[in-house]
What we know:
The chain is an all-alpha fold. It has helices at residues 3-11, 14-26, 30-42, 50-62, 66-78, 86-98, 102-114, 122-133, 138-150, 165-177, 181-191, 196-209, 217-222, 229-243.
Amino acid sequence: MTRESYHDTEQHSPDNVVWNWQILAEVGNIQAQLKLALIYDHGDETVRDPGRALSWYRKAADHGNADAQCILGLKYYKGRHVEVNYLEAAHYFLLAADQGNADAQLFLAMMFESGQGVTQNIEAAFSLYKKSSLQGNALAQFSLGMLYEQGAQAVSGSEAIPADRARAVACYRIASASGNLAARGYCEALADQLSPGDQILAESFATMLDITGAEDIDHFVSHSSILTPLLKKKAKLVYCATMG
C-alpha cells in the first residue's frame, strides 16, 4: 500500500468519521449532534453505545431538533434503553409535533386516543391524525380511517367523533396507496357497504387527502382535475366539514 492510499484510508476510517462528527457536535452543531446520536444508536460507524446515543439525542432535542425529540419520545414510549415513561414520551412528542413532525403527531395522537401519559382527548387525537395524514403518514391515514369507521364517544369534555364510512373508506384508500398493507383489506370490506352516493363522497374525499399544500379550499377545488364540475360543490362541503 502506498503512503497516499494509506493516508486516504486513515482519513475515512470509522473512528475518524465519528471523531469528525464529534468535533462538530461539541461546538453546538445540531445536525452533527443528531448524526452522532444515530451513529452510537445503530453502531453503523463505531461500537454501539446506547448511553452515548441518548446523551446526544437529548442535546439535539434541547436545541430544538424535531427528529431527535421524536426519537426520544419513542424511546420513552417503548422503553428502549430507558424505562417506559409516558409523561416524558408525551413531552418530547409534543415538542416535535409542534414543529410539524408527522411521526410525532401520529404518536401523540395515539397517546391522546388511549390516554397514555396525557388526559384522554379524542378531539386532540383526531386533529393530530389529520395533520399527520396530510403529510403522507400512512399509519396516521389508517388510524384516521379507523376513527371515522368506528366513531368515538365524547371523553373528558372533548367532542364525540361521529362515524362516517365514506370518509373511512377514503382514508383507507389513501393509506393503502401510501403503503399501509392492512388498509387495503379494510377499504375493500367497507367500500362494498357504501351506497352509490357515499361512494362518490369517498372518492371526492380521497382526492382531497391526496392533494397537500393547498392554501385554501377554492385553490384546491380549482386544481382538482379528478372531480367533475358536478362534484365540486359536494367536494367543497366535504372538505370544509372535515378539514376545517
